[in-house]
Design goal:
The chain is built from nine helices and eleven strands. The protein is an alpha/beta fold and 266 residues long. The protein folds into two domains: 100 residues, no CATH class; 126 residues, Glutaredoxin, CATH 3.40.30. The strands form three sheets. The chain has a five-stranded mixed β-sheet. β5 and β6 form a beta hairpin. It starts with a helix and ends in a 7-residue tail after the last helix. About 6% of the residues have low confidence.
C-alpha cells in the first residue's frame, strides 16, 4: 500500500477521533443522568442546582441549538429533563434535553412537572407590562404605575398563614436592607388576607417591604396568582423582568444584575 496514502489515512482517523472527543466533551454533564435519576433524593438535590430562569444556551438531544422558549416548552411535554452541562465560564449556563424513560418519570413526576410549568409560564410573563395598579400601604403611601415609573419594583405576593412565605421572609428582609439606600428600587409586598390589620402585622413580623392589602380578585384574576409565595421584578419601564416561585436566592441574583444596569437599559 502507498506510504503517502497510509499517512493521509492515519491523519484523517486522528482528526476524526479528535473531533469526536471534542464533541463529546462539549456536552459533558456536570452530573450524569444515571446518577441524577438513581433516587428521588438525588433528583431533588439536582433540582436545587437548576437555574432555568437565567439566560442559558439550550440544546436538543442531538446537540442542536434551541431558543430558550422552545427548550422550556419541550420540558413541559414531560418527556425530557434538563441536563446541566459543564462549561469553563461559570456565567455561561448550558443545558441539554435528556430523554426520560418510563421508570424515571416516576421519580421526576410531581416535583418537576409543577416546577417547569411555573418556569415556562413565568418566562412568558417577561417583557409584558405590569397590570394597572393603585396600592396604599399601612403608612398611607400611594403607589401607582405612574408614580413608580423609572424605578425598579420588587413585588412579593404572600398571605399571613403561608408557611413558605414566612420561611423566605428573613431572606427578603436581608435583600430590602441591602438596597435601602437605593431610592430607585422599591420593595412592595401584596397580601390578599383580609382578616388582619396591616400595622399589627408589620409590628409582629418586622417585614421591611411596604405591605399593601389587595383583594382576592386582583391577585387571581388580574395577576393570575394561585401559588404562594411569588416574587416579581418590574423594570423601570413598567415591564416584567423576572418572576420566581419561592426562590429568594434567584431573586437576589437577578436583582443584583438589574440594579447594576443603567436606567435606560431595562
Amino acid at each position: 500500500m502507498n506510504t503517502a496514502f497510509i499517512k493521509k489515512l492515519i491523519a484523517l482517523l486522528f482528526l476524526g477521533i479528535t473531533f469526536n472527543c471534542c464533541a463529546q466533551s462539549a456536552f459533558d454533564p456536570v452530573y450524569s443522568p444515571q446518577r441524577i435519576l438513581s433516587s428521588s433524593t438525588n433528583w431533588r438535590n439536582y433540582l436545587t442546582h437548576l437555574r432555568l430562569w437565567k439566560e442559558f444556551v439550550g440544546y436538543d438531544t442531538n446537540g442542536k441549538l434551541l431558543s430558550k422558549e422552545v427548550f422550556l416548552k419541550k420540558l413541559t411535554t414531560k418527556s425530557y429533563m434538563p441536563l446541566w452541562l459543564k462549561t469553563k465560564d461559570t456565567d455561561n449556563v448550558r443545558y441539554q434535553l435528556y430523554k426520560i424513560d418510563t421508570s424515571a418519570r416516576k421519580i421526576v413526576k410531581v416535583t418537576f412537572e409543577d416546577q417547569i410549568a411555573d418556569v415556562y409560564y413565568q418566562y412568558k410573563m417577561e417583557g409584558n407590562p405590569y397590570p394597572s395598579f393603585r396600592f396604599v400601604d399601612a403608612k398611607r403611601h400611594v403607589y401607582t404605575n405612574t408614580s413608580t415609573s423609572g424605578k425598579i419594583i420588587v413585588f412579593n405576593y404572600f398571605f399571613r398563614g403561608c408557611l413558605a412565605c414566612n420561611i423566605e421572609r428573613p431572606a427578603l428582609n436581608k435583600l430590602a436592607a441591602q438596597y435601602k439606600d437605593r431610592k430607585d428600587i422599591l420593595f412592595i409586598a401584596l397580601d390578599n388576607d383580609q382578616e388582619y390589620n396591616n400595622k399589627m402585622f408589620l409590628a409582629e413580623s418586622s417585614f421591611l417591604y411596604n405591605v399593601v392589602r389587595v383583594d382576592n380578585d386582583f391577585m387571581t384574576k388580574i395577576l393570575n396568582v394561585y401559588k404562594y409565595p411569588q416574587n416579581v421584578i418590574v423594570g423601570r419601564n413598567g415591564k416584567i423582568l423576572k418572576a420566581f416561585n419561592n426562590d429568594p436566592n434567584g431573586l437576589s441574583i437577578a436583582l443584583k444584575y438589574y440594579a447594576s444596569k443603567s436606567p435606560t437599559s431595562d
